[in-house]
Amino acid sequence: MHGGPIRDAILHADPREGPHQVRPVRPGDDEKVMMSSAVVSVVLAGGGSAGHVNPLLSVADEVRRREPGARVLALGTTTGLEAELVPARGYELRPVPRVPMPRRPSPDLLRLPGRLAAAVKVAEDAIDEIGAQAVIGFGGYVATPAYLAARRKDVPIVIHEQNARPGLANRLGARWAARVGLTFAGTPLRGGVHTGLPLRQAIAALVQEREADAAGLRVRAAAELGLDPALPTLVVTGGSLGAQSLNRAVSGAAAQVLAAGAQVLHLTGKGKSDEVREAVVALDGPRYQVRDYLEQMELAYAVADLVVCRAGAGSVAEHAALGIPAVYVPLPIGNGEQRLNALPLVEAGGGLLVDDADLTSDWVATHVPTLLADRERLGVMAKAARSAGTSDGAARVVDLVEQAVRSAGTDTTEVRS
């Protein structure tokens, strides 16, 4: 192992320091790669949440788009979303033992070296099995062993960091990464290049469809959802798990929102719809639609004039790419990354930022109906959001992988055969 014990590497990682400096190269500059792909075998590492898995799948798809015969092997856990989503997309998932990093002294800290060594061995075997030219990491539990394995094998590391405040795994990996892609330009990772978020397949397609025929798409999506395409439409979502504070604040102001001539698609989160239904039962049912969850979120985005939501990186990046204004209500727990995720878009004029404690029914009743009724302001916000977004994040990340492989001088002849 290079550079000392594994545990020391993790505990003392500083993204600003490293054994070498890599000059950031932005896709589109003089060193832009040729479209004939140099990448024919990669290991991808990331999992746990949709925030890690969806970008991983988008990048895997782009690798295969450029080189249909490319060997793609994903590392993940057996308990995260990747266990279902990766095989469903047609990629092989290699299970890696979950190695959480204890935040304080505990028996788990004593077990960390052994657990981590076992996970690194799995990652090394995966690299060897397909002759991986690069390891592409997206953060999360499995990324750390993948980065350590890649370093030991002298395989280029390419990182994509989703959030404005990077996680521990990517802060470690950035010390040795050949290239680092960022969803948000201000994310403090050494050598970071703004790529935007690799968008989910359905959202990337929606961006193109909206550019071609936004009005027709809105009519078709509204018909599928049972909504009126002519009415201003508010979409409320706290993600698949929902957000109780958003549910209560918006449903408590439902009368005022409907009085402004708008309609609402309220996605409460699984198991959280009863309270919202009770709050709006006496109102105009067809114009206040309550659902636990919507599998085809692209339909909601196709009709949305305004969204009230959390400020996860995926939501912020998708709204920016699509040009949808939003009221962002950052999760009040955690390390504050959700506020940082939304801030650049809000400062550009593409949304509003409201603290969770301030999002009351009174706030919604005062601000949201007025905004929904102001088509001109919504149009300005939509344009501002779109100007801050990127829709080709997956291509930009794979451009970085191409650059890393070419810079490393990896000979692809044997792998191709």
Overview of the structural elements:
With 417 residues, the chain is α/β, with parallel strands linked by helices. It folds into two domains: 219 residues, Glycogen Phosphorylase B (Rossmann fold); 187 residues, Glycogen Phosphorylase B (Rossmann fold, 3-Layer(aba) Sandwich). The chain is built from 17 helices and 13 strands. The strands form two sheets. Strands 3-2-1-4-5-6-7 form a seven-stranded parallel sheet, with helices on both faces. Strands 10-9-8-11-12-13 form a six-stranded parallel sheet, sandwiched between helices. Helix 2 links the parallel strand 1 and strand 2. Helix 2 crosses helix 16, helix 4 packs across helix 5 and helix 7 packs across helix 11. The longest helix has 25 residues. The radius of gyration is 22 Å and the shape is globular. It starts with 5 loop residues before the first helix and ends with a helix.
